Amino acid sequence: MPPKEKELTYRQAIEELETILRALETDAVDVDDLTSRVQRSAELIRLCKLKLRSAEQAIDQVFENLEDEEDTDDFG
Question: What residue ranges carry the coiled-coil annotation (predicted)?
Answer without folding.
Answer: 14-72
